[in-house]
Design the sequence.
């Protein structure tokens, strides 16, 4: 259980004041008897040469502990008559009553938010509908990892909502508390070669080691084997009962690097991936898309309408999108911009106006391509050209606006406006966990763009461009 954001921020704010005044040896007795500090930890702190150094070490440790430790520290300040200092911490005391953390959905409590943001789990998309049946299936499988390590695979076609479901499944107070008290750690994988994979594991190890002890940072592992061993050690010794979420795995060789007897949730388009790794395995298929009502709910949310007030074309649009959450969202975003185009978009979808090279994959990309093409088509000519430039972005790479300003050779303010336009049209995604915000394309969008760019540039297709029928 992690320290709540408010409490952490309070400790950081008053850290120097606390370090100047407290006598750790007095406070630690109380904290030991509350069971939030071990005798070993006390010994380590006492080895520090001066009172001030001991105070720094105690604060460092406290920041890595939980709400109970914060409360015990506060109580010990009161008992040792540091009332002034205690009053600094009072306003941000976490509430420990059994139900205080639980909202009606047991989901977005401060505790859950802290654990998930520490582990880099993405937030919900702006427009979001619940999928309770699938969520329960994933949570039920995750519960089976409570007693022993293993793998839960969430698989389904691109854009079917796997990543959103995986993040939502762990947004659950008692699931984390009961099954994964060691935390939840999210890793976006995608199509990677070995050097990239090594970098991913290096940064995961760095993150895990840093939150244990910021003083002693280790040299990064410099081969995949070494990285695997480092991660095995960390998960086994330092983060037992933590969950790793590996998002969008393509390749079983990647999975082998994580075959270290720990708890893993993975999303993939390829069901058979875990055949090559050992341990208990469970799977959940995100088989079909959204049912009709959920699709309508998404369109309603995008267009700020009640579902029963949607125009009659809405139902057919959802059907044409085959319930794909990604495609419905793309069309929803288009309709938010052009609310009188229901009929037009439905016609486009029905006439398969944007039919293009079919992928050799078993998945049905047609509906997605139609929606993507429609989104790009409504951009003003000059913005369309800028959007095509985004093919230089690589999968799973997120960039700040500054990079795009260089790429497009435009003023930052102009870039800002264009990015807002792209994001609103679901043509680009924004990660606002970071400052500055980072922008990225969904991997399907990138695939689409790369292919279209080849097409756009191919001389034989030029006459097609001229007749404005770029996809026929
Ligand atoms: N439950 C949902 N509610 C609303 N939109 C969703 C939902 N799930 C997915 N989406 C939309 O579909 C897009 C793709 O979802 P994602 O989970 O990334 O798919 P996948 O991982 O299967 O490729 C999201 O960016 C979002 O716009
Ligand atoms: Mg995904």
Sequence:
């Amino acid at each position: 259980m992690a320290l709540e954001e408010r409490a952490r921020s309070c400790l950081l704010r008053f850290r120097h004041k606390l370090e100047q005044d407290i006598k750790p040896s007095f406070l630690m007795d109380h904290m030991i008897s509350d069971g939030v500090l071990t005798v070993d930890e006390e010994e380590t702190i006492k080895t520090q040469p001066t009172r001030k150094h001991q105070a720094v070490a105690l604060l460092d440790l406290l920041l890595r502990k939980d709400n109970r430790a914060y409360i015990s520290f506060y109580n010990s300040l009161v008992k040792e008559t540091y009332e002034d200092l205690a009053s600094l911490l009072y306003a941000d005391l976490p509430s420990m009553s059994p139900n205080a953390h639980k909202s009606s959905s047991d989901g977005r409590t401060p505790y859950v938010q802290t654990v998930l943001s520490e582990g880099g789990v993405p937030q919900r998309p702006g427009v979001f509908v619940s999928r309770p049946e699938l969520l329960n299936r994933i949570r039920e499988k995750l519960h089976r990892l409570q007693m022993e390590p293993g793998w839960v695979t969430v698989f389904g076609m691109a854009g079917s909502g796997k990543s959103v479901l995986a993040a939502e499944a762990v947004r659950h107070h008692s699931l984390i508390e009961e099954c994964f008290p060691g935390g939840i750690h999210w890793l976006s994988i995608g199509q990677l070669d070995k050097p990239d994979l090594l970098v991913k594991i290096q940064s995961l190890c760095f993150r895990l080691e840093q939150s244990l002890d910021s003083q002693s940072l280790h040299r990064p592992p410099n081969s995949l084997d070494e990285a695997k061993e480092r991660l095995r050690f960390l998960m086994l010794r330092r983060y037992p009962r933590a969950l790793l979420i590996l998002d969008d795995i393509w390749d079983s060789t990647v999975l082998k690097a994580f075959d270290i007897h720990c708890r893993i949730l993975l999303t993939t388009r390829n069901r058979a991936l875990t055949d090559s790794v050992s341990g208990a395995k469970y799977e959940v298929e995100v088989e079909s898309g959204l049912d009709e009502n959920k699709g309508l709910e998404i369109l309603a949310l995008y267009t700020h309408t009640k579902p029963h007030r949607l125009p009659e074309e809405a139902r057919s649009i959802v059907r044409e999108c085959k319930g794909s959450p990604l495609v419905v969202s793309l069309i929803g975003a288009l309709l938010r911009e052009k609310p009188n185009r229901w009929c037009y978009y439905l016609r486009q979808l029905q006439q398969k106006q944007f039919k293009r090279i079919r992928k050799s994959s078993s998945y049905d990309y047609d509906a997605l391509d139609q929606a993507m093409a429609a989104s790009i088509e409504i951009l003003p000519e000059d913005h369309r050209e800028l959007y095509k430039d985004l093919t230089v972005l690589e999968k799973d790479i997120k960039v700040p606006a500054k990079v795009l300003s260089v790429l497009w050779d435009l003023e930052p303010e102009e870039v800002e406006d264009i990015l807002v336009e792209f994001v609103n049209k679901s043509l680009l995604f924004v990660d606002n966990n970071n400052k500055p915000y980072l922008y990225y394309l969904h991997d399907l969008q990138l695939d689409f763009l790369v292919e279209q760019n080849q097409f756009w540039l191919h001389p034989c297709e030029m006459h097609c461009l001229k007749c404005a029928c770029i996809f026929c």
Q: What stands out?
A: The longest helix spans residues 194-212. The domain at 338-466 is CATH 1.10.10.10 (Arc Repressor Mutant, subunit A). The chain has a mean pLDDT of 83.
